[in-house]
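ugh finaly. both done.
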Amino acid sequence: MRKVKIAASLLGLLLSGAAYGQQGRDIAAGQGIVPYRLEVTFSKTVHLIFPSAVKYVDLGSTDIIAGKSDGVENVVRVKAAVEGFSEETNFSVITSDGTFYSFIVVYADQPALLNINMDQWKAGEHPVAGGGGVQVAELGTEDPALVRKVMYTIYQRNRRDVKHIGSREFGMTALLRGIYVHRDLLFLHISLANASNVPFDVDFIRFRIVDKKVAKRTAQQETTIEPVRTYSALTRIEGQSSGRMVYAFGKITIPDDKFLEVEIYEKDGSRHQRFHIENADLVAARLIERLKK
């Protein structure tokens, strides 16, 4: 009877070992989370560009420093906190799309890569330097490279799709040439022409939402909005010349009793320009298609 019990115990151990071995094979076959192997050094920073915003970073030891890069949503910077550490360590990242990333980190005097596109690494491709779309906080999920391409397209096409908004004073003409939309971003194409022989130096350009019927404005009656990107910002318009600029904003909608006011101020001068954009004009924004390269 005792021999039978021993035999049964041995059989149980063998079965447990087989099950454990199968679990290990399952993990090795890709059913577990396989970590990426990353080289870091003390004197340089490695940047990881993720396909979506980073929500969580956890370090395995104090041998490394890792965290989100300032001002961007989907970039993590990593470097060695201790020069020449010998034991490998790890860190983990969770992104807003729910993806969990695990990294094994080793020290190298000269890391093979300093800028890594995680989209390529996830796809099994060799990660290359650069090439990833950095998600800047003020642009939300929009790729800055794509936003720049949209603005470049508006500038190069140089169409005048809006013909009723602008101002003309003191030999200066400011025109709103077009209002465009791409996903959640709004673009204003503005031109400034100088018909005089005196150069016009741009001090600043201000955008604010104001009440239509209030002559004397107060802080409670106006809201200043800032562009998230500017293409071909103008600082000076020579005499008998002109220039154009494109501004990108987050989504803007305004009530019917307000409008968007655009003010262009001259530095050390008084030839200021001002025009207004109605909500009806904003909601009639045109789509951008066939971007220029």
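ok and the 2nd:
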Amino acid sequence: MAKTNPVQFVQQTRAEIGKIVWPGRREVVLTTVMVFLLAIVAATFFFFVDLIIRTGLTEVLAYF
């Protein structure tokens, strides 16, 4: 494996950092809102799945 000169390494690192595209404020806010909404949807879904399974098991166990 070829070793890179420290000066070249710093130059390459600065060049790569220059390629970074930072998201704008609107994109960050929109993405954050979407994450929270999907978390609420997932929590609601799993709440109802758990409720159905718990109710079913309670009925089955009460039968015996």
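summary for the 2nd one i guess: Residues 37-64 form one domain.
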